[in-house]
Design a protein that fits this description.
The chain is mainly α. 69% of the residues lie in helices and 0% in strands.
Length: 194
């Protein structure tokens, strides 16, 4: 099979096999595929670019060390996000202190819109939503983040966090409910939280 036709997951599994066979350079493939996703995940949680970069490095170090325990028949994405989640959990108290709630990380970037009033409203809403997310307990935040920002399915989140799917659904429900209670009523009428 040609490398360009190979699915990403297949490339990752092949890279894992090569690393386990002693080819340390094959780990670069894993880093290339996951570095941006993991960086966004850590940046959203910490609000600090430097800290997010440090955490990503720690995640890759732990991933490399844990590769012998990876079961080749399983999906890699949930496995590496489990490691990422564990790294974040272990540094939760430090990260919580370092958060800068006021920092605006997620602004919709739509070049079609040149409406300053709408842009200001979106910026305010994004900041309010991010602040509401960051104020959630970690177990609710990580489920909402993985679902909405990384696009993982309920089953992938369940595998990632070693939870049952019903537990993930429950956390999504409780997280949405808490955000609805926290945010301004006018924000909710804009359809931000579904």
């Amino acid at each position: 099979m040609n490398d360009s036709n190979m699915k990403t997951e297949d490339k990752i599994l092949l890279a894992v096999q090569h690393v386990l066979a002693g080819d340390k350079n094959a780990f670069r493939e894993i880093v290339e595929v996951y570095k941006d996703m993991l960086y966004r995940y850590c940046l959203a949680r910490t609000g600090n670019e430097e800290r997010a970069g440090d955490l990503v490095q720690e995640i890759f170090i732990r991933t490399y060390r844990a590769l012998p325990s990876f079961k080749l028949g399983k999906q890699f994405s949930p496995w590496i996000f489990t490691i990422a989640s564990n790294v974040l959990r272990s540094s939760w108290r430090r990260l919580k202190r370092e958060q800068n709630i006021a920092e605006k990380l997620f602004y919709p970037d739509d070049p079609e819109q040149n409406n300053p009033e709408k842009d200001a409203l979106q910026a305010e809403t994004s900041a309010e939503l991010l602040q509401a997310l960051r104020n959630l307990p970690h177990e609710l935040y990580e489920v909402l983040y993985l679902y909405y920002f990384e696009g993982l399915s309920v089953s992938e989140i369940a595998k990632t966090l070693s939870l049952g799917e019903e537990n993930v659904k429950s956390r999504l429900f409780r997280g949405r409910k808490k955000i609805r209670q926290t945010m301004q009523p006018e924000t909710l009428t804009k359809g931000i939280i579904e």
